[in-house]
Specification:
The complex is a heterodimer of chains A (283) and B (320). Chain A is α/β, with parallel strands linked by helices and 283 residues long. Helices cover 40% and strands 10% of the residues of chain A. Chain A is built from ten helices and five strands; from the N terminus they run αααβααβαβααβαβα. The longest helix of chain B is centred in the N-terminal third of the chain and has 15 residues, at 11-25. The interface between A and B is medium-sized, with 29 and 31 residues.
Chain lengths: 283, 320
């Protein structure tokens, strides 16, 4: 199955334009995973609005100069959500959108999980859960030492809240008052095997982060206005790092994938992809 | 007569000193520790450059990840802990956040080997070479005395990829004469003395024991070549092969578990390029215990007489 990858590369400014970008990104998540016959569509679809808000509105970055010293940093700690990251990078202009078709293929820069050596624009290689926050902390410390003004954004999954390293980082970042660090938890309520509430319930997540002395916001992670507002507010917080707990729906945007954990790590079939794309066309 | 011991400082102390020197000339060097700076000897840097020292608390995994983020931002971070904790507790972080993306993090583990002494097996690192060497893109280094440590640290800072270096806790006999310093280079072994009968390849504390064993062997008319193989990976294959071809017998010596360290890597190179009888002086697949360093080295078979015996064994196997 060869799918055309036509997406626009204009920088969105209005909410309605951002919504259009989100739909385009969702289509590419479906196309990429269906073409690869593997990958993780569920957690990519849940993080779409957060990633779109960051790449197309909030972050300062230059696709023509991925090494720009003053750029904001983005780390996809939940590395299996590579499809949404790659789609956003392509849509931003880091590489031609037609290359998305090579996702997970031999020698492709679009590895199953992000590989910074292969793909300019990827800040950190991820895929072993729970490591992204610490890397982001290192970047935030570097910013302070270099007296620069960039921000570091880390997206983690609710499943990653199980990892001990996450809480080592939580304690450290607050103790160091890293106020140029924003963490977004894609709280889509599922991890690989089952609902997070069944596997290892981390609720109340907000209370945990508050007790670690972080600034905590809870939002609807699919409401672009709310996402933008929360990211903006996080910027204003002084003296502590900020976490945004984004309540999301796994598989968001496609009726038969929503809250269907089958699609955690299983790609849609060709027929399912066609149905999904048809649904997204209607949005 | 075994060689006279002129004691120098512990390699961890030499490292601490070298780190301060490095801090004076390289502003990109940062030092991270996990609540062990007084023991790892990163404390010297800490008091001299408090703004470039990052105390991470007893959270090694986070420390390794932070170092990756700092290195990705252009700094040269040195992370410190006991070797066993540094390699075991952060193995996944060193794999995923450092080795795989080829990030410029320098990991220095003190308290290598069983010469840690009285603290016992939990603190004695005997697996660190194997763990570090198994990570692609990592260089693995184990200096033998204070001079070699001080010579190698700036090179580690200059090198462009991930490095693991082991230092030791006790005072260490001097191998090198500071008035006649050899040329140190990561990845290049140093032929300390030549000899036609057997080649002894050692690192760390066992380099001095190897020289001492060579003296004992000389009394019996056996001429042993001794190599300080401070870099375990990338191994100086050229030197190993040349010496093996010349002497047709090899003994490896290390304060490390017998599987996966210097001996294993030397044996791999030999079996590939010039199969040669080899004997291994190492810890025989066991954990050690509390005791004085000298008592432990004696009990676990890591002294000059043990090396001498290994040479005798390998000579019996040597092809006539």
């Amino acid at each position: 199955m060869i799918i055309s990858m036509k997406v626009s590369q204009t920088k969105a400014v209005s909410i309605s334009e951002l919504k259009k970008v989100a739909t385009e990104i969702r289509k590419n998540i479906i196309r990429m995973t269906a073409e690869a016959k593997s990958g993780h569509p569920g957690g990519s679809l849940s993080a779409t609005e957060v990633v779109v808000a960051l790449y197309f509105q909030v972050m300062r970055h230059d696709p023509k100069n991925p090494g720009w010293a003053d750029r904001d940093r983005f780390i996809m700690s939940k590395g299996h959500a590579s499809p949404v990251l790659y789609a956003a990078l392509a849509h931003s202009g880091y590489f031609p959108a037609k290359d998305l078709i090579n996702f997970r293929k031999l020698e492709s820069p679009l590895q199953g999980h992000p590989d910074r050596r292969r793909l300019p624009g990827v800040e950190a290689s991820t895929g072993s859960l729970g490591q992204g926050l610490s890397i982001g902390i290192g970047m935030a410390l570097a910013r302070r030492l270099q007296k620069k003004d960039y921000r570091t954004f880390v997206v983690m999954s609710d499943g990653e809240m199980n990892e001990g390293q996450t809480w080592e980082g939580a304690a450290f970042a607050a103790f160091q008052k890293l106020d140029h660090l924003t963490l977004i938890v894609d709280f889509n309520k599922y991890q690989l095997s089952d609902a997070t509430a069944q596997i290892l319930n981390m609720e109340s997540l907000a209370e945990k982060w508050k007790s670690f002395n972080w600034d905590v916001q809870e939002i609807d992670g699919h409401d672009l206005e709310a996402v933008l507002k929360a990211l903006e507010r996080a910027k204003q917080v002084k003296g502590k790092p900020a976490v945004i707990i984004a309540h999301t729906v796994k598989g968001k945007g496609i009726s038969f994938m929503e809250n269907n954990n089958h699609f955690h790590g299983v790609a849609p079939t060709a027929e399912e992809a066609e149905r999904a794309l048809k649904e997204l066309e209607g949005k | 007569m075994a060689r006279e011991r002129k004691m120098g400082m512990a390699t961890r102390d030499a490292y601490g000193k070298a780190l301060v020197k490095l801090g004076e000339t390289n502003s990109q060097v940062l030092v991270l520790d996990a609540d062990l700076s007084k023991s790892t000897k990163s404390a010297g840097f800490q008091s001299k450059f408090p703004d470039r020292f990052i105390e991470c608390g007893i959270a090694e995994a986070n420390m390794a990840g932070i170092a990756a983020g700092l290195a990705l931002s252009g700094f040269v971070p040195f992370i410190n802990s006991f070797a066993t904790f540094l390699m075991s507790k952060t193995y996944d972080q060193l794999r995923m956040s450092v080795a795989f993306p080829e990030v410029n993090v320098k990991a220095v583990g003190s308290h290598g080997g069983i010469s840690v002494g009285e603290d016992g097996a939990s603190q004695q690192s005997i697996e660190d070479f194997a763990l570090a060497a198994s990570l692609p893109n990592f260089s693995v280094i184990s200096p033998c005395d204070e001079y070699s440590t001080e010579a190698l640290v700036p090179q580690i800072a200059q090198s462009s990829g991930p490095v693991f270096m082991r230092t030791g806790r006790p005072k260490t006999p001097l191998v090198y004469d500071p008035k006649k310093p050899p040329h140190f280079e990561i990845g290049k072994g140093i032929l300390l003395q030549d000899g036609q009968d057997v080649t002894i390849i050692a690192n760390g504390l066992l380099v001095f024991e190897a020289l001492s064993a060579a003296d004992l062997l000389a009394e019996e008319g056996i001429k042993a070549a001794v190599i300080d193989m401070h870099t375990i990976k990338p191994l100086d294959e050229e030197l190993v092969i040349a010496q093996a071809k010349k002497t047709n017998a090899v003994v490896s010596c290390e304060e490390h578990q017998i599987y996966g360290g210097l001996g294993s890597i030397v044996a791999k190179v030999l079996s590939e390029h010039c199969p040669t009888p080899i004997e291994f002086v190492a810890i025989q697949d066991t954990f050690a215990e509390s005791g004085q360093p000298d008592e432990l080295l004696e009990k676990y078979g890591l002294t000059a007489p043990h090396i001498q015996a290994a040479v005798k064994r390998v000579l019996k196997r040597k092809k006539k």
